[in-house]
Structures are given as C-alpha cells and as structure tokens.
Amino acid sequence: MDGSAAGAVRAPAARRRSTVRRLMRRRSTVAFLFTLPLIVIIAGMVLYPALYSIHLATLNKSMERFVGFGNFEFLFRRETFWMVVKQSVVFAVSAVVFKALIGFCVAHFVHNIPAKGQRKWRGMLLVPWVIPPAMSTLAWLWLFDPQYSAFNWVFEQIGLVPVSWLGDPNWARFSVILVNVWFGAPFFMIMYLAALKSVPEQLYEAASIDGANWWQKLWYVTLPMMRNIIAITVLFSLIVTFANFDIVRILTAGGPVDQTHVFATWAFKIGIEGNDLPLGAAVSLFMFPILAVAAWFILRDISRRGTEA
Amino acid sequence: MGFWDHWVPSANDALTKLCNEWAAKEKVELKIDYIPSQGNKNLLTIAAESQARAGHDMLAFPTWQPADKARELEPLDDVMKSLLAANGAVSPLIEYLAKVQGHWIAVPASPGSQIKGPCARIDLMKQHAGLDVQKMYPAGAPPDKALSQNWTWDAFLAAAEKCHKAGVPFGIGMGQTEDSVDTQGALWSAYGAVLVDAQGRITVKSDAVRQVLEFNRRLLAFLPPDVFAWDNASNNRMLIAGKTALIMNPPSAWAVAKRDNVKVAEQLWTFPSPRGPKGRYEPYLPYFWGIWKFSKNKAAAKSLLMHLSQRSSVEKQVAASQGYDIPAFAKLNDFKTWAEEGPPKGTLYHYPPSSEQILSVSAFPAPPKIAVQIYSQAIMTKMVGKATQAGGSVDKAIDWATTELEGFMRG
Predict the structure, then answer these.
(1) Using the beta-carbon criterion (under 8 Å), do A253 and B231 form an inter-chain contact?
(2) Which of the residues in chain A have pLDDT under 50?
(3) Neighbours of A163 (CB within 10 A)
(4) What is the average per-residue pLDDT within B166-175?
(5) Which of B43, B234, B369 sits opposite A147 (nearest CB)?
(6) Which residues from A are below 8 Å from B226, CB to CB?
(7) Which residue, of B171, B200, B304, B373, has the fewest CB within 10 Å?
(8) What pLDDT, on a 0 to 100 scale, did the predictor assign at position A18?
(9) If contacts are CB pairs under 8 Å, which of residues 86-145 in chain A contact chain B?
(10) B46: nearest CA partner in chain A
(11) What is the pLDDT of residues B115-127, one digit of tens each?
C-alpha cells in the first residue's frame, strides 16, 4: 500500500473522529448523554410496562386469545365499573380542589410569617408529605377504626354521636378524601410558597399606590403571577391522585360494598386477587384517556398564556 | 423455594429446619424465601413469576391459585399417589382446588391451612347465651351428642341476640376480606345457597339464597354497626380486647390473646361451626405447594415435597404453629398438639375437623375460575350489604349479583 492510498483510508477515519468531536462539543449531545441513563430507566420501568399493559388488556381472561377491545366493551357494560369511574372522578377532583385551596391559604400564611420563624413552619407543614403514605395512612386507620376510633372517643367525651367513619359509604368517601388532602396539601403549599416568593414586590407597591385593597392585590397581582404554577401543580396532583392506591387500599380496601374503590384499587382487586390480569390491565388503562384529556386542556392553557406573554 | 411467611414466628423456623435436614441428606443447595400474604405479596409474586416464567422452583400457593395457574404447574400425580397411600384421603374440597383435568397440580401444604370455626368466650357464652361450649365440645372427648346437634345457625342467631343485649356482640365481619367471606361461605353452604353450580350455571335466584339473606338481615341487628368495614384484624382486636363473646377465626386470635391478654385467652374455646339444614359446613382455607413447569430442579423439589409431607414432618410443623395448621390428609388430624395446647388445656381439641364436618370454601362448587372471582370480589357479603343497607332489598341484591356473575363467566 502506497502512501497516498494509506492517506485515503485515514482521511474518512479522521473525518469520523472530527464529526464525533463536533457532536460531543454540542450542548444538546452532552445533555442527551447526561439524560440517557434516565431515558433508559424510564423506557424500562415505565414505557415497557405501559406497552405490556396495553398488550395484556387485549387478551382474554386466560391470556390465550387476542380479543381487541373486548375487555373495554365488557367493562362498559358493568354497573360497578361506572361506579368506580364516578368515585375516581369525585375522589380526585374534590381532593385536588381542597389540596389547592388549603395549600394556597397556608402558603399565604407562611409567606407572611417573619423570615426568622418561617423555616420552622415550612418544615413542620411538610411533615405529612414527607412520611410515606402507607405508614401515615395506618395511623389514620387507627383514628377511624370501626371499634376503637380515637375521633369517636373524643366525640363521646363531648356528648356527640360516634360516626361510622369507614362503615358508612359517605363517611368512608369523606375519610379517604380527607387523608389524601392531609397528605397532599403540603406539596401545594410549598409550590405556591415558591411562586409567591417569586412575585416582584414592586407589583404590590404599584397596586398599593393605585389604591388596591388586599383582595384586589390577590386577584389582579398574585393569582395572574401564579397561574402557571397553579395549573402545573393541579395537573401533577390530578394525575397522582387519580392513580392513588395506598390510601384507599389501607383505609377501606374499596369498601363498604365497593363504594370507595378507585381505578387502581379495583384493578388490583380484579387483576391480582381475582386472577384476571387482562381485565385488571384494562381498568388501569382507563385512567389514561381521562388524564390525557385533562393534561391536554391544562397544558394548552399554559402554552397559550406563554404565547400571550 | 418460596414458602408462606407464617403468622406464628416459630413455624418458619421449624420448616427451615426440616428443609435443611433434607438438603443435608440429599446434598442439595437450598435457598428459602418466606413470602408474606400481608398486602397480597404472595399473590403478586405468583403473578410475576407466572408472567416471567422464572423465579422459585417451588412456591406456596393460596387456596385458589393452583387451579388458576394449572397450565404452568408440574403435575404431581406421583407425589400425591404416595402421600394419599401414606397419609390417608383428602377432602373432596382439596380435589376441587388442586386436581385439574384428572391431574394433581399441587400438594396440600400444612403451613397456613386453617379452619375458621367459632372461637368463643367460655364465660360470656355461659353467662349471657346459656351455652356451655366446653360441655358441648369437651376437651379429650367426643362432642356431647345432644348439645352439638342443637348447635345450629338458629341457635347461633339466638345466642348472638342475647350477647348483643349483654353488650358483648358476636364479632362477625361483613367486609371484603377472607374472614368475612369465609364465614358467609359456611353459612350459605349450610343452607344450600349456591351462586353458581358445578356446571357453571348461575343459580342465585333461589329460595335458599333468599333464606340466607334473610338470616343475615336478622343477624346484622345483633352485630356491631361497622361490620361492613371490617378487615381480617377487626374481629381479632375485638376478641383480644374482651368486647365480644364469639368470632369465627383460626386459633391465631387465641395465640395473640395468649401473648397480649392471657385472661381473655384462658376463656377461649375453639369448636365446630353451627349446623344448617344441609349440614355442618366448616370454613376451610387450605394452602398448597406447587412446582413450576419452568423449574430446572423438579426432581429435587418433588423429593422435598415428599419429605415435608411425611407424618413426622407435618407433626413438627403443626406443633411449631401452635396447632394453627390443619393438614389436609385424614390420618394427620390426630396430633397431640391440639389436645395439649392451652390455656385452657384442650382449647384446640375440636379444631381439627371430625367426620361430621364438611370442609367448605366460599363459592364452591362453582368452577374454580369463576369461584375465585366470587370469592375475591366478596359477592356474598356485598349481597348482604345490598340487601340490608338503605335503599336495598333482597331482590335488588339478587339482580345485582346476577349481572356480576354473568360477568365472571367470560372466558
């Protein structure tokens, strides 16, 4: 091999090396490489199970035959399924609304505490969110216990009638929502607090000069400045609350008479306890279109406001 | 190996010891996992291994799982043939749960297999209901013929009423967990109330079903108001706190009382369930051991199964479980553990089933694939709820159950 031929072979290799070097110098490439482990984890732990659930949901009960949308059609004809849909919506929407309201109010209180003592309050108020819900829900279960409820003991001491917290369908629904709100409100509080801190003080000063009262400041300054964070927080919480399993499972296991089941607990009941994995997968997948529609509306709103800005 | 994580801590140690003895003799390297049923971890493990076709060689399968996973389980006809010859016959219920298309696909395991008959307070039953449970089912002797014949579901209802009036109501759950479902199963069978028959036909619209729902309506008036929210622990807590005269439970409640409130334990007596028009049905939840078809150590697993199912091995397991475990084989129900456990001595003497008792599981005799859904969806207790709660009726409960059962028929 003469020198020119060797040079011709080396030239493409050198070009390849310089292309790689160029790629490696790009910020997007570096960013991609940094996120690659996460992408792999998400693909393995989220994407694959999601696709596998879709596959499962298209099989018959004994998982031997493809039935297409047969499981979904079957679910649509079940009275219990529609009850679970209704309960999941009531559970998620009411819990998110209360979490948002409580989080918003508490964030304002904390924001107005002098900086010196604020850290302590922030820490204490975050405690419910920091404790694993399976553990804290067990404590709630003891508070609501059918026979030894601590709340009922207090009620009896002050002459009130004991409440069947988990035995009566309406009280049972109230109880699971209450625990979810207790657990989730600190998340809203901390997000809103961060948003409040980012509102420029000058805007309030300008509003004061214009003679705005506290309500007008809240309505015309605070809320518009927090709209995006409120929307994102609500969306995130809606997804998590809709998919809630542990609180309902531990407190009521879906009872009494199925009247607190949500999608995840009912899917578990059917799929794992009832040995019908395809139908269980179909129930859990039903969350997806509902959440997709909610996400589309909320994200569209955020995107519009971004464009307006 | 994946065994069930026993409620009684010393029971795991006894099983481990037996396995290690076998492993040393056979020169086999053995690894044991104890998988709890708490949070259905055992069901999740079975489902995951069945999907992945990988995992333990041998697993403990709760009541309904062998029939559901039959296609993936190694036939054990040879093992069962030897065990039946050595240990005696098994109840037809065991065949129903573990024999599929003429082949044994699992072997009944002693650990975890339990009967959920009445566990009653000797003093409270005598004082308030006028029932001497020790005289009816004496320790070390057969049941008093006249008294035990009068121990019917009607007598149960009458005693429930008296104890309710005395402020110590019977602790019978109506929730969706096993204890509630199992009690209903025995009651419904005793009245001949069947939801789906052995051929898979829906038989819920029957006089027997109406009769049993009516019985439950009357019983509910004498139970604590929250029974629809009860789980498996609710009745145990009530018993140990001394607030009930009777629960339906295996002796784990008594064992915990022995540890936490010995004064209550000393007053507890376990005995057979009441008799109904169709017989004395006993709630029975057997466990099984099965070997996956994907196992690479089938011969060794079968050898271990044989070792664990020998009379001497089973006796050690029963003793370690403080009498909680009920072996499925007829010749293995005479161990001295049940006669000697106490206090009070002989409290478990009538815990193993006698020939008069019919072992039952809720939803029997429906084909297992349908029955498991009736069981796990707690259709019976839900029917009671739908028939008795505000706005409900027996007709509405039956109509609701019919549509649910139709749904369970899908292939």
Answers:
(1) yes
(2) 1-3
(3) 16
(4) 96
(5) B234
(6) 146-147, 164, 166-167
(7) B200
(8) 77
(9) 145
(10) A272
(11) 999 999 999 999 9
Residue A17 has what pLDDT? 73
Task: Work out whether strand B2-4 and strand B33-35 pair parallel, antiparallel, or are unpaired.
Answer: parallel
Return the closest-CA partner of residue B126 out of B141, B136, B116, B118. B136
Helix (H) or strand (E) holding A79: helix A79-111
Give me chain B's average pLDDT, please.
Answer: 95
Q: Rounded to the nearest 5 degrees, what angle is found at the Cα of A301, between the Cα atoms of A295 and A303?
A: 95
CA dihedral over A61, A64, A69, A73, signed as positive or negative:
negative
Minimal Cβ distance to A257: which of B65, B226, B228:
B228
Q: Give B-chain residues touching A274 at CB under 8 angstroms.
A: 372-373, 376-377
In this prediction, residues B249-264 reach a mean pLDDT of 92
| Cα-based distances in Å from B40 to A274, B47, B297 | 12, 11, 26
pLDDT of residue A157: 92
DSSP classification of residue B29? -
3-state DSSP call for residue B115? strand
Residues of A in contact with B224 (CB under 8 A): 146-147
The verdict on a CB contact (< 8 Å) between A256 and B372 is: no
Residue A41 CA to residue A36 CA, distance in Å, equals 9
**Lookup: tokens for B42:** 């055992």
